[in-house]
Write a structure and sequence with these properties.
The complex is a heterodimer.
Chain A lengths: L11 H12 L10 E12 L5 E9 L8 E5 L7 E4 L5 E6 L7 E6 L6 E4 L18 H26 L29
Antiparallel strand pairs in A: 1-2, 1-5, 2-3, 4-7, 5-6
Chain B lengths: L5 E3 L2 E10 L6 E6 L9 E5 L2 E13 L2 E8 L7 E2 L2 E10 H11 L3 E4 L4 E8 L2 E2 H9 L3 E3 L4 E4 L12 E6 L4 E5 L11 E2 L8 E10 L5 E8 L1
Parallel strand pairs in B: 9-13
Antiparallel strand pairs in B: 1-2, 1-4, 2-3, 2-17, 3-6, 4-5, 5-6, 7-11, 8-10, 12-13, 14-15, 15-18, 16-17, 17-18
The chains are: A alpha+beta, B mainly beta.
Chain lengths: 190, 221
């Protein structure tokens, strides 16, 4: 922890010099990055009317700034929306050292509840040659469609083979496998 | 009893000066005839110039009292608490300015109100810092002690005056006049000796122990 170099008025000359210098740097406080405890986050709109996740916070230590309400995130990855875990901390900065433009610029390492990334074109992972991923729900639907198509055929075949000699190593009927859900537990895409 | 020429709350000033800058707050240094305490608000009268301020420093010494006074309520040096403003429709400059000025006992008048953004995060600092953040250098305190946020305007000095001296290197005039109230920053003057119109940058009204007064004027640029 660094002790803030605030002027002491016991030394009037030094205090006067420091006041002059501070007077030339009115934006100094807003050039810093400040740690806040997140007290709430919610979906709303940012100052441009776009949908956004907004955050309320309270300082984690004795800093010269107040509790803050309804500020948006400037994510490292554009289009990213973060729902933080309870008790997370965020870092707040001010664009162009402007006290009218506070933004969340970073987080602590706590695992967030949800992370969303929205794009207008593509998200590509793994470098060149990337192709579109298959969505588990759509794959499941396709597999179930195949199952629905094949089941009557297998049922008819099994019925036709009933009573016939069993081929060595065979089971006497063609099994039907119902597809199981294959969706990942934490990753979604559209 | 003859009316005193220079007084603070009606008490005679033996010597002193009133300094009026183009932007910022003016100040008065005065040595009083007696050592009686002087209380705020301080109304300083020198001729027809009336200036309102408050005591910054006061000391009694050897039967007289010396005062340093600053314009207005002396509040801009006071600390204000941090406070956040948020309005999706826009935070008004007047909202923030009125809050900070009233918190420290000052009065403010805006030349132009405007929306400053959807947020304003006020820091815990001297109120003058908030004023500087919002108004930059473009603010000044009038003779009544009201902080004017916006540029100064001026008028032409129309009353008689004598130029006692002029230093072209420093752009400094020494003027004699009965009309002290006209000699404030932003006003302009010229006469047969100074044909180019001069704009007053700062003024220092000086009252000396021998009962004489003079006006020291620095002009722009």
């Amino acid at each position: 922890m660094i002790v803030n170099a605030t002027p002491t008025f016991m030394d009037r000359i030094l205090a006067a010099i420091r006041e002059i210098i501070r007077g030339e740097l009115p934006q100094l406080t807003y050039s810093g990055i400040w740690e806040y405890q997140i007290t709430d986050s919610y979906d709303s709109s940012d100052s441009n009317g776009n949908s956004a996740r907004l955050y309320d916070g309270t300082p984690t230590s004795d800093i010269p700034l107040p509790d803050i309400v309804g500020i948006a995130l400037r994510p490292g990855i554009p289009g990213m929306i973060i729902e933080p875990a309870a008790g997370s901390t965020m870092l707040v900065g001010f664009i162009n050292s402007d006290p009218t433009r506070p933004y969340v610029i970073a987080w602590d390492g706590a695992t967030p509840d949800n992370v969303k990334v929205d794009v207008s074109s593509n998200i590509e992972l793994g470098g060149s040659g990337a192709t579109y991923v298959a969505l588990a729900q759509l794959v499941f639907i396709q597999l179930n469609s195949i199952l629905a198509t094949l089941t009557p055929m297998v049922t008819a075949f099994n019925s036709a083979m009933s009573g016939q000699p069993v081929i060595s190593g065979g089971s006497g009927s063609v099994p039907v496998y119902s597809p199981l859900p294959v969706a990942a537990s934490k990753v979604k895409a559209s | 009893m003859a009316e005193e020429y220079a007084t603070v709350n009606g008490n005679r000033i033996v010597s002193g000066s009133i300094t009026l800058p183009y932007y910022g707050i003016g100040a008065v240094d005065a040595v009083m005839a007696g050592d009686d305490e002087v209380s705020d608000p301080c109304v300083v009268t020198v001729g027809n110039l009336v200036w309102t301020g408050s005591i910054f420093r006061s000391h009694a010494f050897a039967g007289s009292r010396s005062l340093r006074m600053v314009g207005g309520g002396g509040g801009w040096r006071k600390l204000v608490d941090s406070q956040a403003y948020s309005n999706p429709a826009g935070v008004r400059l007047s909202t923030v300015m009125n809050d900070v000025s009233s918190a420290v006992g000052e009065e403010v008048n805006l030349a132009d109100d405007m929306t400053i953004g959807t947020f304003f995060v006020r820091e815990n600092a001297q109120a003058q810092r908030v004023l500087r953040q919002l108004a930059g250098d473009i603010w000044w305190m009038d003779l009544e002690g009201v902080t004017q946020v916006g540029p100064r305007s001026g008028s032409t000095v129309s009353s008689d005056f004598l130029i006692q001296s002029f230093n072209p290197s420093t752009g400094k005039f020494v003027i004699s006049t009965e009309d002290l109230a006209s000699w404030t920053p932003g006003n302009t003057f010229s006469n047969e000796l100074v044909k180019d119109v001069q704009t007053i940058s700062s003024v220092r009204h000086v009252v000396s122990e021998d009962g004489k007064s003079r006006v020291e004027v620095m002009v722009t640029p």
